[in-house]
Amino acid sequence: MLGREYDCIIIGAGPAGLFCAAHLAPARVLVLEKMVLPGRKLLIAGSGQCNITHTGEVKSFTDHYGDHGAFLRPALMAFSNASVRKYFEERGVSFVEKESGKVFPASLSADDILDALLDACDEAGTEILSYTPAEMVSFDNGMYAVKTLHGTYYAKVLVLATGGKSYPQTGSTGDGFTFAEELGHTVAEPHPSLAPVYVSDHRLADLSGISIPGAGVSVWRDGKKLFARHGDLLITRFGYSGPVILDAARWMRAGDQIRVAFSPRKAEELDGLIRTACAASGTKQVQNLLDGTGCPDRLVKQIVKESDIPEGTTGSQLTAAQRSRLVRNLTAYPVDIDHVGDFRVAMATAGGVMLDEINKKTCESKIVPGLFCIGEVLDIDGDTGGYNIQACFSTAFLAAQRIRQIL
Fold first, then answer.
1. In angstroms, what CA-CA distances link 319 with 46, 291, 325?
2. Domain 5-192+346-406 CATH assignment equals 3.50.50.60
């Protein structure tokens, strides 16, 4: 047998791969990383501040992974958000909470998390080979062979921790999907998740930068309502972003229509408010009668214009048809999606190794013994707020428990 032999080979030195390796001592573990340095994608998480997890009861976390949260339940219960904090706190990293429960290292630097992971791997005796992309994998006679430019490596256990396809400049180019298929697995078609949307005829582009807390967004396809969500919305120069859009992007497609509720008030309530305001202050301009909508003044002014209400129209001059258009645009503003942001701007990948082919209690393949899939290579993608990195740590921990039993 040519090449070096290990107990376990992990492909990918991101948070999942490094965390798994750190929990496998005293096994002989090799981590193969295609980039020059490990953790490239981790270093840009949360704009470099590294939103590592979220607060709250871990039981509620499964609601934040689209349609596939149930698969993650054993992993999340085995290594929870509290476990993540404790693990890194014991390694000198302190944390702060902000923005509705998001958890960051107190330094607001992803370097602290990566350094802690690399130190843990060093303590575990892990061998990390950077700038060594895996080119091909195979399984024969109970051993995995991983071919690279620098040689072929062998192990009883193989872990795919390659991530998805988002931010390809960090090395996430879907390699793990190819390897999984080579070993007999099925891969659900990958597509961008946690991505902004680009819209056709963006009439609110001049309002780029305005954020609307608690906006309502419903998505329609072929005249049928698919779902509705509430959250913070950001108007951009090309369309819409913010948590409510990013979290729903996994289900959106080109040609869908978004209907945005800028105001927290329901249509009937808002209509009554406008009627009352017009009756009480009929000489005031319409845009000055909308303080109760809960919308920024610049947005209100533009929505009045979008409702075909001439500038200078007063409350007493507002017609029923104009009022109806105004209420509709404040509570169900129609936006046609031109396209969802691609993998270059998406924060995560939807799709991946099919979950019914993976044991959710161990993250081990049901098809090939000794093969493990962890992190974003799986068909899971979380909401914004640290849920994706949490899934990396939880699945890595679960896999490591089983790998130690095998070895």
1. 47, 19, 10
2. yes
Average pLDDT, the chain: 95
Stated pTM of the model: 0.93
CA torsion 227-232-236-239 (nearest 10°) is 0
Confidence of residue 121 (pLDDT cuts 50, 70, 90): very high
- Please name the residues in contact with 152: beta carbons below 8 A apart, sequence gap of 6 or more: 2, 3, 145, 146
Using a 10 angstrom Cβ sphere, with 0-12 exposed, 13-18 middle and 19 or more buried, the burial of residue 239 is buried
For CA atoms 207, 211, 213, 216, the dihedral sign is positive
For residue 34, the 8-state DSSP code is S
Structural domain boundaries of the chain? 5-192+346-406, 196-341
**Of 227, 281, 182, 289, whose CA–CA distance to 66 is shortest?**
227
* Count of beta carbons in the 10 Å neighbourhood of residue 231: 20
Burial of residue 49 (CB within 10 Å: 0-12, 13-18, 19+) is middle
For 157, residues 6+ apart whose C-beta sits below 8 A from its C-beta are 7, 8, 9, 144, 370, 371, 372, 403, 406, 407
- Among the listed residues 387, 338, 283, 346, the one whose alpha carbon sits nearest the alpha carbon of residue 72: 387
Q: Note whether 82 and 57 are within 8 A (CB).
A: no
